[in-house]
Specification:
Three copies of one chain form a homotrimer. With about 350 residues, chain A is of the alpha/beta class. Helix content of chain A is about 15%, strand content about 30%. Chain A is built from five helices and 40 strands. The N and C termini of chain A lie far apart (about 75 Å). Chains in contact: A-B, A-C, B-C.
Chain lengths: ~350, ~350, ~350
């Protein structure tokens, strides 16, 4: 990329249309604030229209209908998706060479594909099976009987307890713990007795798990995360939870035991869901909300306890006018007692 | 267990009573949804009564008074406790052989009991004392002057800072950090100066700590977790906190500095407690609640800020009727102004 | 310190004034509850005035105007700051000897200062630069092209992804993950496509990061934490966030992508801030609050959604009187219908 790539060539890669000089050379991708004339920048959030106009970027990726005077544009139906593709072009991944580092500890009866890489201080337990092209980074710990599908990456310090199954093309970030014991105790005469957690964790294909997130093993059978689901950092997924395909769990959210999430569910940041309930396909939970009962397909909820988002917004509006309501009641009381009506902005001591 | 065990034999182990065929052979324990005729399943949550009836399980553990037509039953006073015991029978633990792995780093003056196991890449610091039957898994880091009591398990990647004391039969899951510095700074002329944290963390016997939970060392003396207390994943326990015996801290809850929790306290998921307060014995904090002041023995609280749960429920009910209240006030105003009374479902522009 | 230090000498170190016997010998520092006559204790929180009077401590650090009958006092303008200094005196740090442990994995082209220490099982990647006096503890993983400034400490199991920059005198606690991928996906025809995260994380000087906290790398350019900012445990800082100088992020708080925090900002425990907003210098967010829009300089906010703290407190007070308001409306309705006015504490079925 030293000479840069022609804007028209980049546009073709993302099925975009050039508006302006397709011969312009692009050296890199940069944000609006730091791009130079040789960079391609992007406008994917309407909040930044003015910043785009002020930017020194020579060219911009924009959505259909996007206009930024004085810039050469690549117009795309989905500009953020185009950006993702072009970042890959300018920043190709560089996997380590295949092979098992001399400083790794791999059990004699583990099976590691010849195209996989296992780094220094990584541990691969007995009978584990590591697929083609898998990358196991330093200090990752893959327990006995684990399986890791083709093309997955296990970042440093991730821990897979015994029996964890990871699908193809998954990414497990640093510090993730898959398959620790679920939090299950039988309380007998005031003492909490551990209920053995003998199930496993299963991640289907194309799942990504963010740093320091924990997904507990099932008491029996499995805790399962569906294909294409993405989980952010510091998320808690409890034992026997089942999450469908293409769901998004944002940072610090949590799901309690045995709850089921459908396909395409979104939990915004710091949201929580109680145990033993079901969120339907496409259900969405607002940030910091707490869900205590089932949510039907496609429904958005917010609040603690969570209710339908439209209802929550109405309640918030009413709350904002609670003081006004109080004043109106005071005025009515005064009128009823025979006095003059209180003025709209009046304050008085209440009975 | 290849031939299975007789149902009557299993019932005897849990002081249960067989209702049906005590000679039935049981090969394993399974959930209602996946059990076959040879499996023993369980009904421990009333929510699943119908699922129990539909299940293909041949036999079921149920509570006193439980009835599931067509199944052989083990009737127990505490079915979940019975389940815990029978899971142990069908899934016995298989500890690794004792000894120090050649790839571990154990300080010359550390004391490791001959019956303990120390895995590859584990670190045991100077003067640490490791008790009988302790299991230290790969990559666990046990700092200088730590003590680990008989029968405890330290899972991969757990970190015990210098001086941490762990009692007997404790389980420390992967990624747990015990004894990192408390968050203490003296702010002087706008700069935050670190207050040295020179105390320790002490876990009494039979404590379990979930994955990626952090318990900070005390500024002076100790942060202490009482015997039999169980802490879930991603929980934060700050410096100088003291937690009593048999308490339960559910996932993503947090306790700020110097706060004291009594015995048998329950913090539900994502709950928080401010610093320098006291929660009495048996206090219970609802999910997602935030406690800002003392809670007396046995009191249940909920909300942000937390109040007594009954009061919180009443407030929630009132909130749900706030729109109705607003309409009633509007109707009174209209009547007072001489107009006809607004109909119950009426909407109008408000003054 | 075996003979102890004279109280007058300690007072001089903290610019304090002795009230009482300056010749008293002090052997150590202890809390009010456990101090003996030979210890120096402290009164830094008004909540503990009675405990100070009851304490067996021989001497106490107190603020100006502090009075504790029968104790020798060191009176300081800032007693907590004085305590920090004296803890350093009684508990001096003991860094490990410099050098690279034989069991560490350091890339041939990494640069490690001769005064730095690298412990067993630590990993230092290609082209990384480790400054003077840096301490890299067991199992810490420092990726390719990272830089660690003079005097910083990287605790066990911390992970620095490729390209992370850590300033001088920083402390990175166990389990911290710096530079994992930001949570960025372009959703195209129902599938979430990863947006490459090719930026880095930069920590300026004197930053401390608590155990198991995660700070994601930027999509492009950098996620930055300003000089002197302190971050507690289990905090989430998302991609492209920028945090100013001297801010405090308390445990389990989170900041979503591209948000900017000014200087001296405080996020209390379990607080959250949505993406793409700005918190001005000195803004303060109460515990468990959720910020959904910009906050001006110096403003304190609370609640979900967060509003100005004074307004939030007023709303809470109104909520506490909602039941009373409902009763007053019922009384007005009864009066309007011709009946006698309901008594203040009356309860009745509502229409």
């Amino acid at each position: 990329v030293s000479q840069g790539r022609r804007l028209s060539e980049l546009a073709a890669l993302v099925e975009g249309e050039v508006r302006g000089d397709g011969e312009r050379r692009v050296r890199g991708i940069a944000t609006l604030g730091s791009a130079s004339a040789e960079d391609l920048s992007f406008l994917t959030n309407a909040k930044y229209v003015e910043a785009a106009a002020r930017s020194r970027a020579g060219s911009l990726i924009v959505g259909r209908g996007g206009e930024v005077p004085g810039k050469d544009l690549v117009v795309c139906a989905e500009p953020y998706f185009a950006l993702a593709r072009l970042l890959e072009v300018f920043h190709p991944a560089t996997p380590p060479p295949p092979g098992i580092h001399a400083g790794a500890a791999v059990a004699a009866d583990a099976s590691v594909d010849a195209t996989a890489s296992v780094a220094a201080f990584a541990v691969v337990g007995a009978r584990a099976r590591i697929g083609a092209g898998v990358r196991i980074e330093p200090h990752a710990t893959v327990g006995e009987d684990c399986e890791i599908g083709e093309g997955s990456v296990i970042h440093p310090h991730a821990v897979l307890y015994r029996g964890t199954i990871v699908g193809k093309r998954c990414t497990i970030h640093a510090g993730v713990v898959l398959g620790a014991d679920g939090f299950g105790y039988a309380t007998h005469r005031g003492r909490h007795h551990k209920v053995p957690q003998v199930g496993v964790v299963v991640l289907e294909d194309d799942v990504e798990i963010g740093a320091n997130t924990t997904i507990d093993r099932a008491m029996l059978e499995e805790t399962r995360v569906g294909a294409g689901t993405k989980v952010d950092n510091l998320v808690m997924v409890a034992h026997n939870v089942r999450i469908g395909r293409g769901s998004l769990l944002i940072a610090q959210s949590g799901v309690a035991g045995s709850t089921q999430l459908g396909d395409g569910v979104v939990l915004a940041g710091q949201a929580g869901v109680v145990g033993h309930v079901r969120l339907g396909n496409g259900a969405r939970v607002a940030a910091k909300s707490a869900v205590f009962k089932d949510v039907a397909d496609g429904v958005q909820v917010a609040g603690i306890p969570a209710q339908e988002a439209s209802s929550w917004r109405r309640q918030q509006a009413l709350l904002g006018r609670l003081d006004e309501l109080r004043r109106r009641v005071a005025a009515l009381e005064k009128a009823a007692a025979g006095g003059p009506r209180e003025s709209a902005d009046g304050k008085r001591g209440e009975p």
